[in-house]
Amino acid sequence: REARExxxxxxxxxxxxxxxxxxxxxxxxxxxxxxxxxxxxCEMHISKTGRLESFRFHEGLMxxxxxxxxxxxxxxxxxxxxxxxxxxxxxxxxxDRLYELYKxxxxxxxxxxxxxxxxxxxxxxxxxxxxxxxxVPVIRNDAHRLIEECMILANVAAARFLEKKKICTxxxxxxxxxxxxxxxxxxxxxxxxxxLGGGDSPTAKDYARLLKQVQGRPDAQLIQTVLLxxxxxxVYSPDNKGHFGLSLKAYTHFTSPIRRYxxxxxxxxIRHLLRxxxxxxxxxxxxxxxxxxxxxxxxxxxxxxxxxxxxDWLKTEYMQDKxxxxxxxxxxxxxxxxxxxxxxxxxxxxxxxxxxxKSDYYRFDPVxxxxxxxxxxRVYRLGDPIRVLVAxxxxxxxxxxxxxxxxxxxxxxxxxxxxxxxxKGRGKGKGGGKPGSKSAASGKRKGKKKGK
Length: 452
Hints:
Elements: H1 2-6, E1 10-12, E2 15-17, H2 22-28, E3 36-46, E4 52-63, H3 70-77, H4 82-88, H5 92-112, E5 122-126, E6 132-137, H6 142-165, E7 171-173, H7 179-191, H8 204-213, H9 220-229, E8 235-237, H10 261-274, H11 286-318, E9 326-335, E10 338-343, E11 349-353, E12 362-365, E13 370-373, E14 379-381, E15 385-394, E16 399-404, H12 407-412
Parallel strand pairs: 11-16
Antiparallel strand pairs: 1-2, 3-4, 5-6, 7-8, 9-10, 9-15, 10-11, 12-13, 13-14, 15-16
């Protein structure tokens, strides 16, 4: 009952709120090395071209022979470091074969047209006083992608199995872009001399083809961001509508029953069938799954928001001693009330309110993702680089305000204390921008995560 209410585990920096009691999540249900564990097995046969040819599910008993980190796995199969390979002995031949399988699955993914957005996740490193030492990007390597492809394949097998048996379950669905968003995307792309294929119903392959086309362009990150934001969020539903982003006709979540309640429901459905139960005798009906799908989609969003709130607080605390310092950044969002800017190499985001822009009236262009000065013609656009000064840090509200640093301001300014990234401090500049706008503290960005 508690697991159902929580819906999923919640991951904070160096702390986890588990969905299941820790005696289960870290003990009896955890695949610790060299201990026997009950499990649900998905045995799959895959062709040389990466096609899932057949599969079967059965209950089993397993013993893990090793617990590898992603970095260690990469050292063994990607970098092929001698010491790392010696350390794992007889396991290496199996790991090498698994890596060869990944290469086949990756090519199949590309042929299928699954969308690959390159996003940056961050990790906070703390010092001995439990204060932030640094914020670093999480670098994805082929070991991460290998596990991801294997999990996707198992999820597909589970979805196909349950759909064929016509038993009520929860699918992980991701619908295509809404018509109004699609129209905005096409208008935006047309200004750049680009187009999205597929007419009124583009496929994931059309998105993937465009992303490949713009690789290497200076505005590639901008285009990717606009395409990503045109898509809907993935949700849980008893009605299979396919997964647009992965370009799959049927998809569910099967691989993480310890930390996601929908996976637990999928396991129950599979076990019901394996033990001779009939679909119509399953304890959950369509109406039950509708309620559970809505609930689990909501708890997933709730977990994302809680994690984001904690990260925002920690990052705000980290910036408290940096008032007056200057940093380079990238515009990550444009709104009618200003610009959200992420600091380069620090991954902290704050607001440049429209009133802190140079004296002008700035018109918001939502389709072009930009603010345009009516008199000066100055444009601030999503993805543009910008240099900013830290003007205000409010820990209680978890908000950071920046002011833009104009080239002419830098020339006129008397040098002050240097920032940790080689910048220089200064006092507040005069306000400008949009008359009658809200205070900087009132602006709040509402981001969405596009989950798989």
